[in-house]
Every structure is written in C-alpha cells, then in structure tokens.
Here is the input.
Amino acid sequence: MENINGKNLTDISYIKEIMRKHGFNFSKAMGQNFLTNPSVCPKMAEAALEFSAKNLQEEILAKKTAVIEIGPGIGVLTKELCKRADKVIAVELDKRLLPILQETLAEYDNLQVINDDVLKVDLQKLILEELCGYDVCVCANLPYYITTPIIMKLLESELPINSITVMVQKEPAKRLCAKPGVRECGAVSAAVWFYCRPEILFNVSRGSFMPAPNVDSAVIRLNILPAPPVDVKDRTMLFRLVKAAFAQRRKTILNAISSGLGISKAEVSAKIAQAGVAENLRAEQLTLEAFAKLADSF
Ligand code: SAM
Here is the structure.
C-alpha cells in the first residue's frame, strides 16, 4: 500500500512484505517491537520538535533542527522525523535493517544511518562533527532491555541537546519521572531531575506494536535544564551516593551508604549529621537538595 508520502510503514501487510523480501525476522534480544499504530510516530515527532521550536523562539535564532534517533527499525518514526527536522541521524545496532532502511527511506536525503551500538557511540563527538550549529534533540522508541543505560548515558554525557523524547515501558516511565523524595523514585529519577524536567506525554497500548510486548508503554519527554536545580561541588560523588542509597533502598541511608561506599558507619553517620539530614531515612525519602548536601559533606 502506498500513501502520499511513499510506503505506509505502519501497514502490517507492507511490513511483512518487506521483512520477507529482505529475509528479516524479529530479534527479541535486540528489543525489536515495531510500531504499527499510525497515530503514534507523528505525535512523538511533533513533541520532540515542538520543544526545539519553543527553544528557538526564546533564543530568537533561526537555527536548524536535528534529531538523533536510537533504533530506527524499519524507519516508521525516522520517516516522521525526516519530514519535520533538517537533519536526522539514526543509530541502529542490527545491520540486517540497513538495506531495509535504504529502501523504506530512500526519498529522504536528510538522513544518516549509523550501524552501531548506541552505548558505544561517542555522541559528544558525533554532535560536534555532524550537528554543529543545529538545535539537537533525541527521539526514539527505545529497545526496552537497555532503557536505563541509554537514558543514563544521554544524561551523564551532558550532551548539547534540548530534549529527549522516548517511548519506554509504562512502569519505568513513572519511575523515571518520579521526583526524588516520592516513593516511586529511583537512582535514575535523581539523574533525570538533576539534568531535566520530565513529563509523561501519552500512553501507548501494547497492541500498537508488532510483535506485541507484554506491557503497555508511555512516551516521556525529558526537557534538558540550562543548569542543574541544585548546587553540588562534585557530581560524581552525588551520583555515587544516590546509587549506593538506592542499591539497598529498604535500608536506612546510613547502612546503605556505609556498605555501598565501604566506609565505616561512624564516619558516614558524622557526614550525614554534618549535612543536616536524618540518618534513619530511606533513599526514596531524600530530595535532590538533601542528596546534594550529603554529597558536599562527603
Ligand atoms: N523505531 C522502530 C519502531 O518504533 O518501530 C523500532 C523500535 S524497536 C523497540 C528498538 C530498535 O532498537 C530496534 O530496531 C533494535 O534493532 C534497535 N536496537 C537495539 N539495541 C540497540 C543498541 N544497543 N543500539 C542501537 N539500536 C539498538
């Protein structure tokens, strides 16, 4: 089936046809669940680029927009991004998808596909070399088996990007966006709130994918902050403490930090007191400000 903009990449019979033609079958290990709900990708692409537009207006600059996509699959979201952005760079691990992408997205000359593991790509260098002068955002339907490592990498490498719009599983979406200090939060939420303002944009049912996963999904947008909301002398220490405290989240911060960092309880107790924080709290009860004070006393 053709639509006005070429092949309809959400049409299940077309997906099956192109898979058959290229001898492609889904890899569960690579988290391959392709979107077939036609309303999702245009909405995701709009949401990713809408934030760029807002930024540009504020800067009163006529900058070009670029998107880094992780895991384009057969290109269903990529196509919507190519229609709206000046440049799209898509990083795909599975080399079997490259000839498919060449065919499905042949009409777009603003697309560059990189065959690599996104966790191994030097994104800082990529932006500097390929997207210098562009207003850059990230947009992806993430492979679920590495959602957290990808988000942590995007945040910790402090890339010059304005937002990260991603599809993740519904429960992790809630955890990622939970503010430090509330029960659902985790170590990754602290990193999210240190670098961004997160928002859950919309839910996507499991039936929107082929093959259908066992759980529903949600699209979230992490709007990168110009500067972190808290002052901290040493970011590495902040995140070491956060990880230690959440690694044993049922324990008090005194016990979790002492065993996580391998420091005596007496010493940890003194540092916690110096920060003005109660040592019998659990990680999930600490705000980002409290973690920052703790980091400064260590
Ligand atoms: N964007 C497509 C869509 O929405 O239909 C596919 C999304 S599918 C959930 C995840 C994609 O990520 C697959 O194409 C998979 O091959 C790719 N992928 C898996 N691990 C990856 C990695 N480490 N680096 C880059 N891409 C990866």
